[in-house]
Design a protein that fits this description.
This protein has about 450 residues and is of the alpha/beta class. It has a single domain, classed as L-2-Hydroxyisocaproate Dehydrogenase, Chain A, domain 2 (Alpha-Beta Complex), CATH 3.90.110. Helices cover about 50% and strands about 15% of the residues. The chain has 17 helices and 12 strands. It has a 6-stranded parallel beta sheet, with helices on both faces. Strands 7-8-9 form a 3-stranded antiparallel beta sheet. Helix 4 packs antiparallel against helix 5 and helix 4 packs antiparallel against helix 12. Its cofactor is NAD(+). Keywords: Glycosidase, Hydrolase, Manganese, Metal-binding, NAD. It comes from Bacillus songklensis. Belongs to the glycosyl hydrolase 4 family.
Length: about 450
């Protein structure tokens, strides 16, 4: 079996230990020769990196592993896969993304609404720089990107690198949903054949077939309406995530044709969701006080005792495993099916060709082969076109340094609607992001 050279960008992420554990678990199905972690935050990465050394010594001793803050060491000609999970501005800026809109009376969320706009405007620069850095050395490496907000990042990368066919933007939320369906049905997620359409964090499952071709969606819908919905890993989830999944029941009750992505709650029920959000204590605070604290305390404990044998910080979660099984399918030309983000180009007949849509596709060594969706209903088409216009204008606002297009983008977003409120929010976000955004004129 061929072995691959892999770079993880964003090695200091709280999600990295789960990814590292998945690398150990899947070493026989995705064999790695050399693994390097890169992060601009030396302190965070050192903690994760030293933990990784202990983990690999015990579970993957033949792996050549290192971590660095030096791009010259990280970007090499022999790279095969670059796994990206950056967060420009860190959790301190995420907190601003959530609290500034909330202080002005609109949804404050990491990837949706004005918070997603602010995050996207920060992410574009670093993602473009990353692609250029990779391509300066490794012309043929696959770049598998988790960096959020994936819809805005995907649109920007498609515009700037239209001929680069080895950039694949992915999101683990459809995978999380499939695994949650699997737990509900007591079935293996890999036995599902899903049909899905939409934009990232803005889509629907229309069918969910089993190995015999039976559509399980009607059964799932009835189960959700009867007993509610929880994430597959609900025992480890923070309270806000449990509330997010619980909203699926309401969405399905109002719009029963398809099963929704959980993020649709912010767009379909902004008034209801807004009432639940605490402007003083947002999900960013929940993460920093919860997962962030748990992960780094446990990594430090493992480093101190010198063994990961009894560690609870690493579990084979969807985030860590999903990006690896995507890489496996490409690396070994397996052609497995996944929900990924691709340029439309006729996949969905009645949406713009340049929209970056999230759909099911077979992943091969020669890239994704998407499954045609055909025409979608008027209701879903209308929602998607409005959201795509917001995303497109966000990217154009960044590329052109246009205040007008930024204002148009936020006015279109369903979490705001009011042009006056959009201007108020935009001006506050400009002030908070002056060290990250281009100047908007």
């Amino acid at each position: 079996m061929r072995k691959f050279n892999v770079l993880i960008v964003g090695g200091g992420s709280t999600w990295t230990p789960g990814l590292l554990k998945s690398i150990c678990v899947r070493q026989k199905t995705f064999s790695i020769n050399r693994l390097v972690m890169l992060d601009v935050n030396e302190e965070r990465q050192k903690t994760i990196g030293e933990f990784a050394k202990i983990l690999f010594k015990e579970e993957y001793p033949e792996l050549d592993f290192s971590y660095t803050t030096n791009k010259e060491e990280a970007f090499t000609e022999d790279l095969d896969f670059v796994l990206v999970q950056m967060r420009t501005g860190g959790y301190s800026m995420r907190e601003q993304d959530e609290k500034i809109p909330l202080s002005l009376g609109v949804i404050g969320q990491e990837t949706c609404g004005p918070g997603g706009f602010a995050y996207g405007m920060r992410s574009i620069k670093d993602m473009v720089e990353l692609v250029k850095d990779v391509r300066s050395k490794a012309k043929d490496a696959w770049i598998l990107n988790y960096t959020n907000p994936a819809a805005i990042v995907a649109d920007a990368l498609q515009r700037i690198f239209p001929e680069d066919k080895k950039i694949l933007n992915i999101c683990d939320q459809p995978e999380n949903l499939l695994r949650s369906y699997g737990r509900l049905l007591n079935m293996d997620t890999r036995d599902f054949d899903p049909v899905y359409f939409g934009l990232n964090h803005f889509g629907w499952f229309t069918n969910l077939y089993d190995q015999e071709g039976n559509d399980l969606l009607p059964k799932l819908r009835d189960m959700i309406l009867e007993s509610g919905f929880r994430p597959v890993d609900y025992e480890q989830r923070d309270k806000s995530w449990l509330e997010t999944y619980a909203m699926v029941e309401q969405i399905v009750r109002d719009f029963p044709d398809y099963l929704p992505n959980t993020y649709l709650q912010y767009y379909l029920y902004p008034d209801k969701v807004l009432k639940k959000l605490n402007p003083e204590h947002t999900r960013a605070n929940e993460v920093m006080e919860g997962r962030e604290k748990r992960v780094f305390e446990e990594c430090k404990r493992v480093i101190e005792v010198g063994t990961s044998k009894d560690s609870h910080v690493v579990h084979n979660d969807a985030h860590g495993e999903f990006i690896l099984i995507v890489a496996e399918s490409i690396a070994y030309n397996k052609g497995d099916n996944f929900v990924v983000i691709l340029k439309n180009d006729g996949i969905i007949d009645n949406l713009p060709k340049d929209a970056m849509v999230e759909v099911a596709a077979s992943l091969t060594a020669n890239g994704p082969r998407p499954y045609a969706v055909g025409e979608i209903p008027t209701f879903h088409k209308g929602l998607i076109e409005g959201q795509f216009a917001y995303e497109k204008l966000t990217v154009e606002a960044y590329l052109e340094g246009s205040y007008q297009k930024a204002l148009q983008a936020l006015t279109l977003n369903r979490t705001i609607v009011s042009a006056g409120k959009a201007r108020e929010v935009l001006d506050a976000l400009i002030e908070a992001n002056k060290d990250f955004w281009p100047e908007l004129k």
